[in-house]
Design a protein that fits this description.
about 375 residues; alpha/beta; 7-stranded mixed β-sheet; 6-stranded parallel β-sheet; binds NADP nicotinamide-adenine-dinucleotide phosphate
Length: about 375
């Protein structure tokens, strides 16, 4: 059995550590990829630092990581869209419930990707650029297009002008936000969003119409003014405090749908604490109470609000359409750019722990990437 190198999480709340794993054969609906670049998401250090408190099902050792770019080295029996030698990028879902956290994690030299969550990398994109897409793009698509969230039409779906409207995206300079702006615009919607001043031009260049500073005390008023009486088809809440802010905007603009992707407070303090117990008690109490309060407020306002799970498109019809049709077409047309820009912080599996720490320290319109 061939083997390869991986960076595993040996046990909850431990540092990533080198390991040798058996290189799997791809299942019928998978491709085996030699990984050449991975990107880091907040969820990677959240899982590392909170373990089974947040990811109850996750057994260790596990291979973390969602964002993969590389080259196909083997294809499963039913795979039709890819061939050996092709450059691809895709969403690794190994840490999800029911998946295999060793075979399907990103942070290793070889991983398996589901054909339906993989796209060819165009010639004009480097692997480092392609690696910024998978989880940010997938989460944005879940928020915008899944019927249980905003339920918007997808790029390429026919629409009359009367069906257009405004999407409010709180957190436009996040990775999820930058992808959401591009997807919403490509589907024909106007976007009003938030970003700090220094990132306003970047999010405008992705298609946002009006950009408001989320740190400004008048941010909610400014968003309402930016909507300017147009029909609001929903809001996407990204970042601490975003849920309440979006509920306020929706209540004042008549929007009725909210997709929430962030916990009410960041889990960062918990990840950094020396012991999870009892530090987790006040944090989870605040998260629980905040969630109940927001849900009650949403219900009172007649707003349908739900929490987005960025890899849930694996099991619905939207995922294959996004990855198989929409993403390749948007890339070919120049309607989808890799954003945030990759910030390559190191090379090799040994650079991954520092990369996770770098992401956790905070980024501004940058995607932390490691070259393997
Ligand atoms: N539910 C899911 O499946 C899922 C999946 C992916 C991500 N998420 C969550 O979605 C959020 C965004 O993740 P990401 O990876 O896209 O983040 P990210 O790229 O790490 O976000 C960094 C950006 O956040 C912006 N920001 C900081 N505080 C903010 C606030 N209070 N409101 C709005 N924006 C703020 C900053 O903008 P400026 O520099 O312009 O100030 C910065 O550029 C996180 O909470 C993450 O945990 C959830």
């Amino acid at each position: 059995m061939p083997v390869h190198a991986a960076a595993t999480l040996p046990a909850p709340r431990t540092a990533l550590s080198p390991a040798t794993l058996e290189t799997p054969m791809p299942a019928a609906d998978e491709v085996l990829v030699r990984v050449s670049a991975v990107a880091i998401n907040p969820v990677d250090w959240v899982i590392q630092g909170t373990g089974r408190v947040t990811y109850r099902w996750l057994r260790t050792p596990a291979v973390l990581g969602s964002d993969v770019a590389g080259e196909v080295v083997a294809v499963g029996a039913d795979v039709t869209r890819f061939h050996v030698g092709q450059r691809v990028f895709g969403l690794a879902t190994g840490t999800d419930r029911g998946r295999d956290p060793l075979r399907e994690g990103a942070f290793q030299d070889y991983t398996t990707l589901l054909e339906r969550l993989t796209a060819p990398t165009p010639e004009n994109l480097s692997d480092e650029e392609a690696a910024v897409f998978p989880l940010g793009l997938s989460t944005a698509a879940c928020a915008l297009f899944q019927p249980q969230h905003l339920g918007l039409r997808m790029p390429g779906d026919p629409a009359s002008a009367a069906e257009n409207g405004v999407v409010v995206i709180w957190g436009g300079s996040t990775s999820v936000g930058m992808n959401a702006i591009q997807l919403a615009r490509a589907a024909g919607y106007d976007v009003v969003t938030t970003a700090s001043g220094k990132n306003a031009e970047t999010v405008r260049s992705l298609g946002a119409g009006d950009v408001v500073d989320h740190r400004s005390p008048s941010a909610v008023d400014d968003l309402v003014a930016a909507v300017a009486g147009r029909s609001v088809v929903g809001a996407v809440a990204l970042g601490a405090g975003s849920t309440d802010a979006c509920l306020e905007v929706l209540s004042r603009t008549g929007g009725k749908r909210l997709a929430m992707a962030s916990t009410p407070i960041s889990l960062d303090s918990l990840v950094g604490s020396r012991r999870l117990f009892p530090a987790m008690l006040p944090v989870f109490a605040r998260i629980g109470l905040g969630t109940v309060r927001s849900n009650l407020r949403a219900r009172r306002l007649g707003i349908r609000a739900g929490f987005v799970w960025g890899s849930s498109l694996r099991d619905d019809a939207m995922g294959p359409r996004l990855w198989g049709e929409v993403v390749p077409r948007m890339l070919a047309e120049g309607a989808l750019r890799p954003a945030p820009a990759p910030l390559v912080v190191g090379e090799g599996l040994g650079a991954l722990q520092d990369a996770l720490d770098r992401q956790r320290a905070g980024v501004s319109a940058q995607k932390v990437v490691v070259r393997l």
